[in-house]
Amino acid sequence: MGSVVWGCITDFFTYETTKSVVVKSWSVGIINRIVQLLIITYFVGWVFIHEKAYQVTDTGIESSVMTKVKGFGYHNNRVMDVADYVFPPQIIQHSISPLFLPHIPGVITGACINNASESQGRCEIEGWCPAENDNVIIKPMLDVKNFTIFIKNSIRFPLFDVTRGNFPSSMTSEQIKRCTYHPEHNPFCPIFRVGDVLNYTGQDVADLSVKGGEIGINIQWKCNLDLSIEKCIPQYSFTRLDAPFAKNAVSKGYNFRFAKYFKTENGTEFRTLHKAFAIRFDVMVTGHAGKFDTIPTLINLVAAFTSVGLGTVLCDIILLNFLKGADQYKAKKFEEVTCFLLPSVAQSPGSQLSLKHGIKSSSDSGAISLSICDQAM
User: Where are the annotated glycans (predicted)?
Assistant: First the structure.
């Protein structure tokens, strides 16, 4: 039992040092260089050039957006302008209680109305008369495709204290009035034609105007602050946000209700209820900025140099398991040296440090050169 404990203690207090073994094998050498080349290409091409891992990045973008819609169209033989067709959703609350049921067009007051011709009474309902009628079909205003949306977007990256706008400060009001956004010919114009935006999303104006829909305008900022600040420019993309519900039987499209109220001379209140099927535009701003920094550069350089050693691990697996002469390689790679053998210079022919026939010592100190066959075991 004591010898076992003593053996564990002596095994624990040991020292391992790297031993260099030169293997002259074409196949293993080619595999080693290919793996190293792939690792270096990955770090240089993807990590440093594409992902710019040498930069510190600010993703906490601060943004503000202001929009204006302009255009005229005909609806029910009436000319409509921006004051008629741009509506924010409004909720008007009345202090009415007690009971509300979704399928009843009003609020139950709790009073019962008795009719002399009927044996039973009816519950009194307070609400607007007549009730909403969903069977009314009104032709949509297709002139919406010629309307324009002006988008004014300003952003700031707080880490670098950099601010930018979505159109050049040198652009005059006359230039803005005459321009229309185009991804290639006029990418910095802040005026977007509704018909063009819908075409970018693959939507048809006539189909979309029947039930409405939600369109997303994404403004993306990707800024490399190691370059000129003038190259920090926005990129626009467009998508239909309610696409998953486009084929649903219920709750498809986008609509909201609003009312206009009137009062006669005798004090009677009336209202006109509008159910608007509309195209909703959501402007979303995303982005990040990057700038060179020493710390991420050093971290990724160390990771790159460390990863190059993976080629050695792969070659060791091949040498130790798949090539003829693996036992020879094991004998030279893993060697135990006891303390009383260290001062000895000349080794006996039968010792572990002796060279077998066909094995030559290299000129480097502490290195051994092996010539093995490139054949699988």
Answer: 146
